[in-house]
Amino acid sequence: MTTPLFDPDAAAACRPAGMDASEWQARLELAACYRVFFARGWAEEIFNHITVRVVGPEGAPAYLINPFGLHYGEVTAHNLVKVDLAGRPLHDTAYGINRAGFVIHSAIHAARPDAHCVIHTHDRHGVAVACKAEGLAPDNFYAAFLDGRVAYHDFEGVTTSTAEQPRLVASLGTKPVMILRNHGLLVAEHSVASAFYWYYVLQSACHVQALAHAMPGETLRLSDAARAQSSRNVQDSDPQGDLYPKVFGAAVRRAGVTLDQLCA
């Protein structure tokens, strides 16, 4: 059984009156994830987004997104903005949302029922790899985990037009990871914990590639069989289904994220 991120009774005590328990849990997990990204230097000032799908009015799909204008270290479970798939806030809020975040995230949440959590960043190593014609080279330890799991989407400019949404969705297809060419990284997964895990793997793969390709000498190539086996090994390494929560929980503790911070 996976240990909860925070004491359940203490978490319940700071839940706003009238808020569904499942949404409050989603808010705590998402706010904690923003804090972890901030602690690790994966944040892009007030830009980029991590979103989580929740239930809106009358069961309509909605999602939580960071309030535009705050850096990741200022995000709390309370100030996350709940929006519908058209990007309209579903409650009173002192903050707006970034349109680029709405265009990308609403498209994926609407099209992929399995995409409970979507992460998009401009991590510098990720952007560097996104600028290379070959994209992610599948020849390091982390990249091998992603064998067959990475999609690509061509750059069309800053993503502010809803006209690009069908093409974003088509490019992603059924894959959990996408490299936005000349732009950045994206992960779409079934939980905050699994999205964090696969983002960590993707970011690590890009970081190692940037370092390795900056060094003189030939890069050792992995065989197709070795890459495929590595990917299978990772997929089969979690028979109890608790690997992702364990990794995410450890990351939250390492970052020093507390329930008091998230409930502020």
Query: How are helices and strands ordered from N to C?
Result: HHEEEHEHHEHEEHHHH
Number of strands: 7
- Shape by Cα distribution: globular
Structural class: alpha+beta
Please tally the helical runs, counting DSSP H or I stretches of 4 or more residues. 10
> Quick check: average pLDDT?
94
- CATH class bucket: Alpha Beta
User: Which strand order does the major sheet show?
Assistant: 3-2-1-4-7-6-5
Q: What is the correct CATH architecture? A: 3-Layer(aba) Sandwich
**Measured on Cα atoms, how large is the radius of gyration?**
18 Å
Outline the low-pLDDT stretches: none
Task: Sketch the major β-sheet.
Answer: 7 strands, mixed
CATH superfamily: Class II aldolase/adducin N-terminal domain
What is the terminal separation in angstroms?
Answer: 29 Å
Strand content: 5-15%
How many domains? The number is 1
Instruction: Say what the CATH topology is.
Output: L-fuculose-1-phosphate Aldolase
Oligomer: single chain
Helix content: 40-55%
Organism: Rubrivivax albus
Pfam families: Aldolase_II (PF00596)
InterPro entries: Aldolase-II_Adducin_sf (IPR051017), Aldolase_II/adducin_N (IPR001303), Aldolase_II/adducin_N_sf (IPR036409)
Protein name: Class II aldolase/adducin family protein
